[in-house]
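Hi! If you just cloned this repository, the fastest way to understand the data is to look at a raw example. We've pasted two of them here, unedited. The first protein comes first, obviously.
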Amino acid sequence: MREEYINFNEKRMYIFSELVRRYWNGGLKSAEDLDDLVRDIMDKYGFGDAEIPFIKDHIRLAMGLDPKGNVAFDHELTIIKNAGEISHPIVAKLDGPCEHCEEPNCECSDICRYETSIYRRKGPVIVNDKCLNCGHCVSSCDFGAIADKIEFMPIIDLLKDSKVPVYAAAAPAIAGQFGDDVSMGQLRTAFKLLGFKDMIEVALFADILTIKEAFEFDNLVKSEEDFFLTSCCCPVWFNMIKKNYPGILEHMSPSVSPMIASGRILKKLYEDARVVFIAPCIAKKAEAIEQDLKGAIDYVLNFRELKEIFNALNINLSELEPDYKDQASFGGRIYARTGGVSFSVKTVVNRLEPRRVIMLRAKKADGVKNCKEILDDLYQGKKVDANFIEGMGCPGGCVGGPRTNIDVYKAAMKVNEFGEDSLIMTPFDNLNVMKILKHLGINSIEEIINNEEIKKILSR
């Protein structure tokens, strides 16, 4: 295995951090400046001329653009300035590195066996109509052969435009991701230093969707044979069902994810707002540009990218003065880990119908393999002893996403701790929910499933 390619995920982050630092400070203005970056990368890591196409591909992907091999840089910076969105495909396989891989049982050839089954001997072929964009192939290949687009370059221009209010919508899994001594209040301050108008907890919108799904469960599950598939969180889970199990799709909630709800609602509340979702997930990049969901979220950044942005711009989180806001409930905040959605919906169902005869019995699956197993059982009519089925594509839930900064066990613990710090126990008790709903013309919690405007916002 060639030394230059080893640990390439870290080298890729160096490429990204250099793009951020130079573009933010006005040091990237022309194609020649991008060529200078290529030479600096070659000198730093000992790449030869044969690797120039590979380096250019990673620069383009780190800018949010498609790889083009050895094609000369030309209008990339102009394209970025005018980009309204990042286009498909999100995940790309690059030419070159697989030819030098000497691993006899390369992990990337097995990682997506539950999604797409077409592979070449030297590396995977990504079949975009089958790929679920879970991103685990990206993090598992440390040879730089598979990579996802990074969306920060066009965000820089938005953040520097004082006329555009840009909101950071932070996923619940963000708790603890940037150090044991870094609070959510300090993260909010950091986002404001970058130029964001504010950081909003997506857990707040999870609270709203929890209430909606609780009503839906109450309406749909009337007998012991009925069951309800939540769609509330994970695009990998949703797309797995949509693409492979159409026979049980009718049991799935029509709700959008908390990410989509956050963008749609923030844009209703704040004129001309732009919304950037912050997550541990690569699949969310693809979800944001699905045809029926486009426009809610402008760009998606993951935790690993955000960490590099803070480092590149010399923002020391632990030294910042915290800006605290208590926006979400315990229930909304624990959406980040396996079982969180089930717990949250059950608390609201119990509040809505405390005398309900058929109680909510949850079955949780995490990781693509486990999700597939439970869906196979449901599809074949096997009894699963549950009427509320929660699935998350990553092991452990969102806290096990491909772009987290800490291990899944610690991340789940931090999410639980942050949830317990909330002054609000359940979504039903969250007065912030009612304030938002009133802004949208709703005066009682029951209207959440009958009001046409809110149904349009919260449904696919």
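Ok, and the second one:
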Amino acid sequence: MQRTRIDGVPVFTAGGRQRTTAALVFGVGLRDETFATIEVTHLVEHLAMAALPRTHLRCNAVTDVDSTAFFATGRPEAVGAFLEGVCRALADLPTGRLAAEAGVLQAEGCGTGSSTVSALWAARYGLTGPGLTVSAGPGPEHLDEETVRAHAARWFVRGNAAVWCHGPLPEGLRLPLPAGPRPVRHVPVPRPQDGPVWTRTDAPGVGLLLATAAPGDAALAVGVGVLEERVRERARHASGLSYAVDSLTLDLAADRREVAVVVDARTGRDGEVADLLWRTFAQLCADGPTPEEVAHAVAGLEAEHDDEDAAGTELADAAYCAAVGLPFRAAADTLAAWRAVTPAAVTAALRGTEPTAVLAVPDTASWDGPAGVPRRPLCGTLPELPAGTVFRPRLLRRLLDPAARVALVVSDDGLAHTDADGDVHGIPWARVEAVVPTEDGRGVSVVGRDLCGVRVHPDLYGRRAVAAVTGRVPAAVVLPRPRAAEPDTVPAG
């Protein structure tokens, strides 16, 4: 692998192929948005791709939780023209297509829902950072030209980009991106936690989230590999309860890594799978892995490095780290570190993550959680309704409709409501993330940073309730009605 610079952008290259595969990577993704601007990075990506001429080149783009990439495979000159075209488009987005591309995003998102990993991140961070991926937000139709251009001008700049190229580097390649340094990335603050917790979510599957301040710790990586293998053996091969066991790593900073282990389950067996996942993790923390399990995990990494696409994977890793500002470790160095790991080191690494553990279980599971591990609600709940001005639906409606047996309280401190199940949710005014107009414009949905959402509509609580809420919320969080309103997409709570 070689590193050079073109127009101030770091470029990582390697030969060995006749055709060229290359990608332009930016250190910006869903974690860099707010609830009000969810999908803005994806919309910038779509607008840039829409500005390019039609081509038979194999090319595409993807927006992930922490990066955005434009990539292509083909003749070197065609790939070079693609990369240059993306750079020029990002410098002057075709915002005349804003409404059309927002519609495309809506169509692309149809039928998708929150994943188990998103629910885990939200359980840790609420509606900030990676936790934003749990929600569809108010919708791309709320994004205006000023917001989109400002986002592109801040993040899609030379100092926040990198390129990797596997195969011949396009001759005379130019990367005319707007000048600008890498923006300071917000690192979200996790919810306070002094020991493992479990929670219920509306996402399918069971998941375990672990955090560490040492992202480069090979012992933890090996430990997670052993955990996956044990769960796979017990849940799939021995019990037939599950099909897939996967893990995903996200580095929020050089000293903050989140590792999620996700397990699917047969219908109605989520509780058994959750119990198995937790017991396997707890057993590894207590007793550690065997030498054979550690050796098996290392052999798996060795096999990955022998893959024919290993060189391309290392190029992509190097460009990603350069774009997002994280340290890069060469594949050979990573393998050497894994080979030096001992069972005792794995045990210590896993034990270090135990106080950060969050276990997520579908809310349909008939299971009361691991013994001795407290349940933490996913959103902000209260033991009872606080004092304040109370609003309720009319008595006759409450008598006839169980869903209308709710109550709303507006106080100096915040907004609270009792849902139809009797649970009390609260949103302090300082924790209001956004206020979204309802489709008819007569009411609002108040979204809390701690995942609670309250719909305040005159048909339910009366006009005085809407006025009481809108008169209290900070003006900066109130979203204007879009040009063409769409159904609300606010997290339930």
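That's it. A detail worth noticing about the second one: The radius of gyration is 25 Å.
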